[in-house]
């Protein structure tokens, strides 16, 4: 984790979570590494009083990027009621510098949601050739309660239990002059060029999500971005939709019991970023 900063301030999305610094995360067993994998998880041993935040981890890359091909290979991601895991990129001046949500779901949802959050003027084109379902077209974070312009992946192996049952998979985000595109591949369908370390997005077929330069200039609405992993609980999204998610009780009571977080782990094989040389 030497290339990552640990965020230990209050959750900006108002989650019922306590983000630990690196030392406390190591000592409490919330992060771990082996020769080939990194694990980040939510505390799954401590009983809490109602309203007490649960320990978790949020990390950001020390390096920032102004474009490129970002690849995440995971065995599993956190899933279950009250959980809100995400893998995303964000600029230092939000929302003007933009945010790209590559992997995100709440309350154990079986479908990944990919979203752009920007300043005013960026929109999603309904004409983009994508495999996902467009949920909203205005990316402006200051309207529609910051829902952004989201796209839903109908593939149940793109998130949660389905992702784990598929043996994990790969998520790829390309940010270049043509816009932003996101692909997901279940483990059995990962292109050979990704596995060989020579990714060639031109041969991957239609992406799950795309925001084209014609309606959202990728270098105007997106500035230098760091890469973020986090798992929060309840909060502005998972908490607000908890009652309609099919989960039991309330989000706050769900957080109290550590047994509810036995599947609240990121198990990451690698993160790779490819940038064009000058």
From TrEMBL:
The keyword Hydrolase applies. Keywords: Hydrolase. SUPFAM superfamilies: Concanavalin A-like lectins/glucanases. Coiled coil: none annotated. This is Glycoside hydrolase family 16 protein. The keyword Hydrolase applies. Residues 2-246 form the GH16 domain. Gene3D superfamilies: 2.60.120.200. GO terms for biological process: glucan catabolic process. InterPro entries: Beta-glucanase-like (IPR000757), ConA-like_dom_sf (IPR013320), Glycosyl_Hydrlase_16 (IPR050546). It holds the Pfam family GH16_XgeA. GO terms for molecular function: hydrolase activity, hydrolyzing O-glycosyl compounds.
């Amino acid at each position: 984790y030497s290339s990552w900063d640990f965020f230990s301030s209050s959750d900006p999305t108002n989650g019922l979570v306590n983000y630990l610094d690196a030392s406390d995360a190591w000592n409490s067993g919330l992060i771990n590494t082996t020769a080939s994998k990194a694990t980040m998880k939510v505390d799954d041993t401590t009983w809490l009083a109602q309203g007490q935040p649960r320990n978790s981890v949020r990390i950001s890359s020390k390096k920032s990027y102004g474009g490129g091909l970002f690849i995440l290979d995971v065995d599993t991601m956190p899933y279950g009621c009250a959980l809100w895991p995400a893998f995303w990129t964000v600029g230092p001046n939000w929302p003007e510098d933009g945010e790209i949500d590559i992997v995100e779901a709440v309350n154990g949802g079986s479908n990944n949601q990919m979203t752009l959050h920007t300043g005013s003027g960026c929109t999603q084109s309904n004409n983009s050739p994508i495999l996902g379902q467009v949920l909203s077209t205005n990316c402006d974070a200051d309207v529609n309660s910051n829902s952004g312009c989201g796209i839903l992946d109908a593939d149940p192996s793109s998130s949660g239990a389905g992702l784990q049952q598929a043996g994990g998979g790969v998520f790829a985000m390309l940010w270049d002059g043509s816009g932003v595109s996101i692909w997901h591949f279940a483990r059995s369908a990962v292109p050979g060029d990704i596995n060989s370390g020579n990714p060639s997005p031109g041969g991957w077929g239609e992406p799950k999500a795309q925001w084209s330069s014609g309606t959202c200039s990728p270098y105007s609405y997106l500035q230098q971005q760091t890469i973020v992993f986090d798992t929060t609980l309840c909060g502005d999204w998972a908490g607000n939709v908890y009652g309609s998610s099919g989960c039991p009780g309330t989000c706050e009571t769900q957080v109290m019991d550590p047994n509810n977080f036995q599947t609240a782990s990121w198990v990451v094989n690698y993160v790779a970023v490819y940038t064009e040389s000058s």
